[in-house]
Every structure is written in C-alpha cells, then in structure tokens.
Amino acid sequence: MKEERFKQLFTDFPEITTTAWEEKIKADLKGTGSRKKLNWKTDEGITVKPYYRKEDLDSLNYLENVGKLKGAGSAPNGWTICQDLFPGYDLEEANNRIKTALKGGAQAIRIQLRNAPSPNIEMLGTLLEGVSLDETELLFQGYMGADALYGHLCELAGTRGVDPGDLKGSLGADPLGKMTTSGIPIASLENIGKLVSRVSKNSPDIRVIDVNGGLIQNSGSTLVEELASTMAMANEYMALLTTLGIDPQVAQDSLQLSLAVGSNYFMEVAKLRAARILWGKISEAYGIDPSMGKIRIHSTSSEWNMTLFDPYVNMLRGTTEAMSSILGGANLVSVLPFDYPYEKSTAFSDRIARNVQIILREEAYYDRVADPASGSYYIESLTDSIGEKSWEMFRELESKGGYRKAFETGWIQEKVLASRKKKIERTASGKGRILGTNAFPNFNELILENLKKPGKEESHDAPLTPLEPFRFASLFEEVRIETEKSGKRPRVLLFKYGNPAWMTARAAFSGNFFACAGYEILDQPAFDTVDSGIQAAKDKKADIVVLCSSDDAYSELAPVVHTALKEQSIIVVAGYPVDLVNALRKKGIDQFIHIKSNLLETLKEFNRMLL
Fold it and tell me: Would the pTM of this model clear 0.85, i.e. be above it?
C-alpha cells in the first residue's frame, strides 16, 4: 500500500529526459548547449557538468559498498572530535589546555611535537598530568622516535596502574612523510616492522604509522595527487610489513591515513569517499577480506588556504572543511584553530575549533545518517572520477618503484610543484580568491604586534628536493606586511566623477584592489566638478588618485587631473579604455587597474614606487 501511494505521488510529475533538458538549456543560452558554457574543469582535469541525472550512475558498480567501507561507530555516521595542540616547551600550560579540551567536548587529543622537547617519562608525565590514559585517545605527530615514545607511554601507564593494552591512539611514525618534508632519504624501514609487531600484541588499539598525505595537499597539490600519493605511501608500508611476516590484517590496523581537507567542498567529500574505495582495492590485493578492508581516516582542515589577515574568516573555512570531512566519512576530524598561522593558538581559538564539530553533531545532526552523500548523482560521479584518476596515478607511481623511488627521482615533486605553480599564478592574478586577503580585505587591519617573531631557522643540505607547506595567502601578506613595516601607509583617493553606475562599480573595485596592500582608502562622495576632486586630493595629500568614471569620460578627465596632481600623486585609471590607452600614455598617464591586471605584481610595483 505504501509503495502504491508513493507511485501515485509522482504521477503528477512527468519524467523529463536529458534530451529535453539539453534542448531547454540550448534555447535559454541562445543556441549554445550546456557543455560549452556551463561545464567547467577542475585542477584535477575532471569535467564537472551543470547537472547530473540517475543515468550518470548506471555504470558505477561501487555504489552499494562504499558506505560499508567505514568501520562501525557509536552513531550511523559517528566520528571522533579531535583537538590539535601544540605544546612547545610550556608543558604545564599545554597540560591545562589538554584538560580544558577534554572537559569542553574533545574526544581525542593530537599532540604536535615538532617544536616540543623530546618525549621522556618526565615530559609525558607533566604533559598528561590528570589525563586518564585508558579513556583518552592520544595521537602524536612530528616526532621520529616512535619506538621510544611508545616505551615511555607504557612506562607512564605502568606508574598509574593502567594496562598498556588499554592505551589507544597513534604514535605518528611516518618516515616516508619525514623524507617528503626534509628531503633526507630513508636509511631503513625495518625497525618500524618490529615496532608494529610489538604494539599490535601489547596495545592493539594504538596505530603505529600515520600516513600523512595532508602534507602533499598543503604543499600545493591537486586532490588526485594527494590521494594517489597517500595510497602509494600506505601501500609501501603494507608491502614492507607483510614482507617482514606481519599478517596483512595486522599491518592494515597499524595504519592511519591523515588527509587535509580544503575549501573545494563537494570535491573533498568525494575524495574521502574515493579513499575508502581505493583502499578496498589495495587491501584486497593483500588477501584481506573485503568486509575487513577498512582504513582509519583522520581528516584535518587544510593549512594552505588559511590567512593571517582577517583570521576570523578561518573559522568559516574550518567549518566547511569539517562538514566535508564528516559527510565524506572521516573517522577522526581535527579543525585547526583560526589563529594557526600565527603559531600561537589561544584557549579561545581552541574552544572555537572544538565547538565547530560539537555544533555539527549536536545541532546539525551530522551523525544521524550513515554515508549521507550516498545516492547524490553529483557526488557519486565526482567520487568515481577522483577515484579513477587517483588510481591511474597510483599505478603510475607503482610502475616507478613505489612512492619512495618516485620521490627520490623527483617525479612526485615535479608533479606537485607544477600544480602549486598554477595555483600561485591564479592567486596572484586575483582569480583565485582568498576572502579577506586578495578579495574584500579588512581595510584598516594591522597585525605586526600579533606576529610571532621569527626564530633562526636551521638550514640543512638535503640530497632530495623536499616538499614544503605553502599558504597561498602569504603572497599578498608579504606585500601588506611590507607596507605596515615601512611605517608609511600610502593614501589612495577614489576620484568618483561622472556616470553613477560606472564610478560606483569602479570605486568599489579600486578600493578593494589597493586595500590588499594595506593602503589607506579615502572613499569620498562623488565630486560635482573636476576642480573639487583635485582640491580634495591636495587637501588629503593623496599618494595615489584613482579615476573612477566611465571610459568615455577619461579622455578629458584624466589629462586635467594628471596635469594638476602629477607632482604630488600617481594618477591611476580604473578600467582599460582600449581606444584611449595610447593617447593617455602619451600624456604621461600609464597606470591602469582592471580585472585582467595581475593583482600581486601590480601591488608590488606600487610598493616599490611608494615605500
């Protein structure tokens, strides 16, 4: 009966074929089909269509299994809320923050040991004072001595009457990742096999190896390059461990994938789902039963799109990235604090990072539906495309001898750095928008007093080319910090005159353009006469005067203003009036800003002229 009513419900909605859709689109676009105007191509080379239909899924054979590739949790789409902490050398403060995080809703703590003292029993005792070792999932990252770390953890557990078998978390061993970021070749991987054997027997809920694919994306890669490289690293560890006689199931359970999740919302959801599909294929090749081929995924908000300026926007980025992580089926999720680029997070930023996930769980009910992306024609198609392209690259990596060999020959670096270069060029031009940095900046923000003073970095001659994390906002931040450090803040007068529509649009564009360099924007009401605008520029002592009007007004307006102000100000024309450019240049007016200007290079040039 229920099915009959369901059928009746849709009798009022006749089926519309794809051909009918295309004809309607062609009519609305005046003869051009959707493929020419509405399709777009991602950095991964995936063509994204404007709409998807059920027929797009007809050839996909993984649909019934992808949701089952995630291990069982406490809820249909359960995940663990993880808080990342950076203790540094103040261990007592770090301990207070760990306890505050656990009290505030964190279920796991990941301790970043990059800039902390080497772990020993005393250091860990101080850091974890008052923390229940048998109830708290502890993950470590950034320390190479995983075997020593495990020994100290077991010793500390013994002093507190905790059985090492009750410990859970991750030791963060990742020699391939260390090679990637340092450029130093790996001498041997055999010790990691001994550690896996030891830990799997004594502490089965601790994962030894953290396969850090996120460092690939944070170096500027595409999602396909990140996913393929992650799979290649994980496969290399699997091959090593099984060769040493470790059971494939034990080897798999000793691994954890750490992936970065960026701002490409739906693509990131699809990437995480594709990761499980690819891992299913790899684990099956090692003889693991398909029902047991489940890998643990720890997803972290990306570093590459975080900003120093307007840092509260990082909260929004972290929120959408957490949403992608959860919808994609991550087991653990870390949201980086919004002030992460300052390298000195606060109790407030830690709390916000936790609360993002708590809200998504307790108020948005993201944990209530298993595999919530399942059945979406769009996301399923993206999942298939990302999985297919990542598998192709994974096979290519394997044909070159695996991740380690491919990195030693520089093949991986070449791929990633080429992708990074494309993103840099797009960001520098202003087409790749970073909200608050190269688009809609906070005009009056100053940050020097909040910046951590740079320490002296140690330099090492590495035989291999390392991959280094890169924030794309830093390109513009350097220009703006240079302005702030100079002690001189150039003043930009927006000379609005003439056609209201043109002057308003071009003034808004110009204000945002120069604010990206930290200049002071003088946005006054439109001038009734040219003379009143010239007088205002003199009174305000403007370093730059941007003419904001229609193209047809510039032939008379620009020469008059230039003659009157050329000794005081740089005259800039907003727009690019093609028919007038040569004539204006002959009269000494050679600065034009428009949507095709290279934003970064133009601002650097103005800094050279004015600071």
Answer: yes
